[in-house]
Amino acid sequence: MPIIMILYYLITAYLVVLLVWNFIREKKKIEELAQYLLVLIPLVLRILRIK
Amino acid sequence: MSTQIGIILGIMVLAYAVAKAMRLTVEISMFLAALAGGLTGVIFRTPPAGELIRHLVEGSATYLDVILVFSTATIFMAIVNESGGVNYVVRATIRAFHNKRLAALIVLMIIVLIPGALTGAGSISLLVVGAPVAMALKLLGISPKRAAAILFIIAGLSAAAPPVNIWAMILCAGTAIPYVGFELPLAVPVLICGVFTMLVLGWKKERSINLASALQEMPEVPARMTWWRVLLPFLVFFGSVAAYRIFPFQTPILGLPLQFTLSALVAWLVSPSKIKVLSLSRETVKRLLPLISTVVIVGMLQQIMTATGVRGLLSYAVISIPLVFLLISLAIVIPVSEGVLTYGAAAVLGIPLIWYLDSIGFHATVAIAGLTLLWPLGDGLPPTALIGRLSVMVSDYKGSYWEFLRTTWLPWLFITIVGILMVVYSAKLSFLVRWSM
Amino acid sequence: MKRPGLVKAVLIFLFLAFLIQGGLRLYRHRHFDVSVVAGPGVTRVSRLSDFGPGLKGTMADTLVYFMEGGEPGGKAILMSNTHANEPEGLLTTLLMLENAVVEKGSLIIIPQFNHSASRNTRPGDGYPLYFEIPTDWGRKTFRLGNRDASPLDQWPDPDAYIHYPDRQLLSYIDVRNTNRTWPGRPNGPLMEKVTFAAMEIMRREKVDVAIDIHGAETMFPVTNCIVAPDKSIRIATLASLTVKAREGFDNHVEPSPTGFRGLSHREIGDYSDTLPFLLEAPIPFLDQPTGPKTEKLLLDGKDPFLLSLAQKKKLFVPYDASGWPIEKRVGQHCSIILEILRQYSKKNPDRSILARDIPRYAEVIQNGVGHYFHDPAGAEKDCLYPN
User: How many structural domains does chain C have?
Assistant: First the structure.
């Protein structure tokens, strides 16, 4: 895999970590929790090399 | 078939309305509309039941790169801001231009136009230079509401400005028209509309501020801050964008997210104050959540609308309108389509529209240029309102969204008229294309 | 929020259900193989990576089938799935692979030209993942791909794609479109490597004729036609006139624009001695104003919105209630290809290319496309090429 593509997977993984962290910390708003998970769908699929 | 699709569309609208009435967020309401549309579609086997979730999941990936661009660009600017760079630039701008209002307005307009023109995304303009320009506008005595309105219109124009206009590129890719000859048909109206906007919204001083008190109002800048510390990260960004343009076959394709990440790393390294990148990134993502979730959900919505035929019905309805009404309706149809589908609108409505106009003697390149002036206006319209919401966010305007949008009415109308006239008189304006080549 | 732990658990369960249900289907699509039964005319099978560097081990590498005749003659290369959401091309080349016998000269066939795109789906456009063709022995399943290569194989995109070598600015997405990356280069992005390798085949094998097989919207002016540059336009015109006179279907000729770079019909001619042709058959499924994007629409091409637009004279092809079925599209492609080869052979007898057992327009319509596909279960193992 080219080095630039590897860096993209790292950027995506960094975002996933931030979103998961925020999801864990969020205690009040259900809608925000749902939104974090919706955003995670394409990012996780990319990291798993599915889409 | 129209009845079946009409029912699905009706259910989608109803689901959105009910969700909004229950005070759910725009994003969740849009998701529920997509889900309701998909479930109704399943009744007619469009899509088959087993495929519904796959469609939603697949649709979520439509704008994955946009999520990365938004996130990395915002984290980059958050670091620059945290280092004191933004305040440093604004102080300098105000010192230089506080008594040359016209020059200040034009310079600020050009600062906002450049990032969007280079990348094709108004959001980039707002994320990179939006906050400092908003602050400079306020120090010129312009209210946050008007500052947000200026940023929204100019950022929209920056996306339409050459060399990169993504709507035009999507249309060209879909209609097999070369993306050449767009420089003047885009640059001339963008500059005219931009100057008009700056004068209409920015000329009037809503409060008078003298230089000393303006500077006093601003937060302190770290003592060790210097010009090179501010400029270096931006040089990395614009340098890497320019390097690919100037040496495209010697430069590897980095892509905007990596370019912003590299610039963010440089900003972090040269910052005079210590920055906690991880917690800053986490805060930034939290702030960006409404925007990035909108982008994901629009992809889902688009996929469901296509799988159920709703998208086709809308496209059919627009193309079936008689020509004169069609041209007049562009004023509404184009921005609304952008508000619902963002860039997807260019493919759904734009491609068949351009084929049709081309076949009856309109000049395709000028007509595309005209239409691409109208699309950015839709970026202020719900449900997505991507650029509108970003403008409000970076300019720190706390009032009603509709109040902000209403402030843009005159430039909005002016741009609409210019865009439609460009389409109508595209054949007569074709000299602009010839002069560009 | 009451009991945040429970709410989170429920949301995570829903998230995982979405991810697994939707993700698995997409994963299976990317790894689904179509069994190709190489017919009696296939003499050897190579890979695109044998002709260009940087493709080995990537999803962009693809099979190249050689069908060499007993007598020496000219050579033609046929490419399909340049855009993997235009399946008439793929069905045409597979039909030839499974049945044709070359008597003079050679045919070189690359059925999955943009192999990565054939394993990609089109987010936002609501396509079905597969389509099935009824055959004499059951149903044969094919992947429905995308116009562009998968970002899993080529990532990131630039903010705008600059065409090599003409520096024309193209849409960022065209960096993954193998009908914009011609003539390619050995050290460019992956899709430029694909087109470069194909150019190498043409240069090394001294290919006389290149045919790139596509489908195009009924609302697109460049549809139902042969696109050809100046050097191929005479043969294209003769082929078009002959099929009209002998077989009764229209297929006009469009000149290849000199100012629009990166397209096969432009760059192959400019960067090699090969004569390029690009074939377009109308595919209503790709039009924007259609009903739901179903497998049925993909195969029969019947749509009430297009029918209404046809009555308002807004389409560029004749269109009635019979739609534009896949048999008609594949049949047209077969006849046009045979006619191009015949016209070329007439003009260049020492480089002629003669093939038999390729059905023509009327036969494909009468028998259906599936009639020409062989049952992989009953085929010799060494004739099977999962792809």
Answer: 1
